[in-house]
Amino acid sequence: MKDCNCGYCMGGEILAGFGIKICDLDVSQLILFKEQSHPGRVIVAYKDHVSELVDISDEERCRFMADVARASRAIHRAFQPDKVNYGAYGDGGCHLHFHLVPKYKDEFEWGTTFAMNPGKVKLTDGEYQEMMEKIKENL
């Protein structure tokens, strides 16, 4: 099931407003969040347009959470954060996804909840590409 207004479902310009697809995982897609105040921030979005973890089977949920863990491992290997925060929101878009937000003790927002889109750090196309390659190398 797809929603024509959803960036995770449709990709293209809607997705480009906030992210860049890195690759497909087992039952999800891995997306680089364009706002990079937290270096390595990504989104793991489930393959279908469902709203809740309870909307998928136990098997699919296990596979989705394995994708989240795989992405988190890659972020830890690639960027060595002190902690990764996990955010599962979606009351605006209703597509099951997790934000993986690397946190660093001596940097922005340590010890607080991460801002959804602080709008502080955008990268060049080359820097985004370099970051995505680093993540893929560590998957």
What are its keywords?
139 residues, alpha+beta, HIT family, subunit A
Strand order of the largest sheet: 1-2-3-5-4
Largest sheet: 5 strands, antiparallel
Low-confidence stretches: none
CATH architecture: 2-Layer Sandwich
What series of H and E elements makes up the topology? HHEEEHEEH
In percent, how much strand structure appears in the residues? 15-25%
User: Which superfamily, in CATH terms, is the homologous superfamily?
Assistant: HIT-like
Could you walk me through the main structural features you see in this protein, from its secondary elements to its overall organization?
This protein is of the alpha+beta class and 139 residues long. The chain has four helices and five strands, in the order ααβββαββα. The chain has a five-stranded antiparallel sheet with strand order 1-2-3-5-4, with helices on one face. A hairpin with an 8-residue loop joins strand 2 (28-33) and strand 3 (42-46). Helix 3 (58-79) packs across helix 4. The relative contact order is 0.21.
